[in-house]
TrEMBL record:
Protein known as: gibberellin 2beta-dioxygenase
Enzyme class: oxidoreductase
Stated family: Belongs to the iron/ascorbate-dependent oxidoreductase family. GA2OX subfamily.
Cofactor dependency: L-ascorbate; Fe cation
Catalytic reaction list: gibberellin A1 + 2-oxoglutarate + O2 = gibberellin A8 + succinate + CO2
GO MF terms, alphabetically ordered: gibberellin 2-beta-dioxygenase activity; metal ion binding
PROSITE patterns given in the database record: FE2OG_OXY (PS51471)
Pfam families assigned: 2OG-FeII_Oxy, DIOX_N
UniProt EC number: 1.14.11.13
Amino acid sequence: MVVLASTPAVDHIPLLRSPDPGDYFSGMPVVDLSSPGAPRAIADACERFGFFKLVNHGVPADTMDRLESEAVRFFSLPQADKDRSGPAYPFGYGSKRIGLNGDMGWLEYLLLAVDSASLSGACAVPSCALFRAALNEYIAAVRKVAVRVMEAMAEGLGIAAVDALSGMVTAGGSDQVFRVNHYPPCHALQGLGCSATGFGEHTDPQLISVLRSNGTSGLQIALQNGQWVSVPSDRDAFFVNVGDSLQVLTNGRFKSVKHRVVANSLKSRVSMIYFGGPAMTQRIAPLPQLLGAGEQSLYKDFTWGEYKKAAYNSRLGDNRLAQFHR
Ligand SMILES: C=C1C[C@]23C[C@@]1(O)CC[C@H]2[C@@]12CC[C@H](O)[C@@](C)(C(=O)O1)[C@H]2[C@@H]3C(=O)O
Ligand SMILES: O=C(O)CCC(=O)C(=O)O
Ligand SMILES: [Fe+2]
């Protein structure tokens, strides 16, 4: 991190040295979901990086574009109108503050509850009918992709029950969240050789996160050796993250990937992310089918409800799983 005499606009936002363009992720696994080799390729990418790019996923470009343009329209509203959709917690519009424990980023966002395959009936935000329709269409589609990916993960891991993982997000009471992030350009830092932190480094607590962004890069992931690399944007693809809970279910075989977003000084970034979490009472422990003879769980026993509570009491960059290690 760099310390600069910052401008008032970015006061309280951590600054990062601009990524070296040479640090683009050249070894990115790209998985074709329509190919017979997808299960093995997905499992391999989750073991090596906890992250991969997904193509040929079958979600029409229109579905993605419609939501993107409705989101852009929403984030262009006057601040007072957007604030009427707040606060962010438990669900709603938020700006710069992330979580409830003092984290800040150069972004604004909508955090939304998902109920089976659409926005939760109780979720009044956003109030615009077109935006809600675009959200519901997109959420239904991305959730299907998440289910297909989790089925492929189970197959790639050699588990006979195809729904061993996906069943956790399709079960009644599963805890699914949807988030739309907008990172405005951070003009104040143009030419200064550093960038504002859009979304600070963290791992996602859930099982799986499926992200789609516009054509503005900014997402970075940490490789297993600790090196940060930038993920080139691709508006036609999804990017899939392994979350903490999936790392535990696989007893550490799949890696929960550390990631962050760096704001661009010239262009806005819009991302939409589906987070697949299980029901609050779901026990999070290594699947017995994955434990070799005599192999013990690396983790203490806990439920998703217990883990979520601990996660929401933690700071963004904390190693949340550490307290659950045996
Ligand atoms: C600082 C925080 C924000 C977060 C809750 C937390 O206390 C730690 C985990 C964060 C995270 C990361 C992934 C998702 O964006 C998110 C919605 C989630 O489930 O966990 C956020 C939380 C948030 O923004 O509220
Ligand atoms: O907005 C992005 O590109 C990623 C944000 C993220 O990691 C998150 O919301 O958990
Ligand atoms: Fe994340």
